[in-house]
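ok so I'm stuck.
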Amino acid sequence: MKNTRAMMMIAVSLIAGILAIVFAARWLNQQSSMMTRKVAVAAINLNLGQQLLPEHVKLIDWPGGSVPAGAFGESGELKERVLRVNLQRDEPILESKLAPVGTKGGLSAIIAEGKRAITVRVNDVVGVAGFALPGNYVDVVVNTKDDRKPKDDQSISKIVLEKILVLAVGEEASRDDTKPKAVKAVTLEVTPEQAEAIDLARSVGQLSLVLRNQVDVGPVKTGGVTKDSLLGIAPPPKVEPVAKPRVVAHPVAKRQCIEVITGRERSEQCF
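replied:
not stuck anymore, here's the structure
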């Protein structure tokens, strides 16, 4: 009798323990679902300017207390949106990383508001040996002639634009590459006024690009380099013009003449 009662107590204890475990697991699952949210992330590596397709997006659980601002909870909200930056796999897709609604894919989607894109023809040297990559900043130098100076000293090189963003090199706009690329053209992001300056500069001389540190934002004002300053030749001394003697013309007094008649002879006397 005692053994039976003990066995029943043990069975009841086991059942109670199992039920406690089941309820605890269910409660933990409920708490876990309440503490996480679905967040849309990149399913694969994506490039800037790329239009999002359903296969590019997936939803994952994200801790509810650390969901990034601008995150999306449904993949349908991202239909046909265009990326302004590169995204790595499993990186959250945020509103700040997308072009405005209605923007089509391509380079135009990544141009900042109020800016323009202009392409400059380059070679291995002018293009900084291929090291000017998308996302870098460059200065633009023009080599031209200054017609106001003597013929032997007309050549001048001058920085005309500073801290210009490189949008694309050749036909590539990816900013993940660090390997130099030999290209024939570089596309720059400029203001409308800077676009006019570049267009004029390439019509009057040859353009070169100067790669600069990405965190160096200080402007540098230069007077340009001429042939004489490059070779260290001092400019010739100025020759002061010699003053010419001034000739003053005095007015000639008007002569008075009279007619003199002597007998049959007639003459004229002037004084």
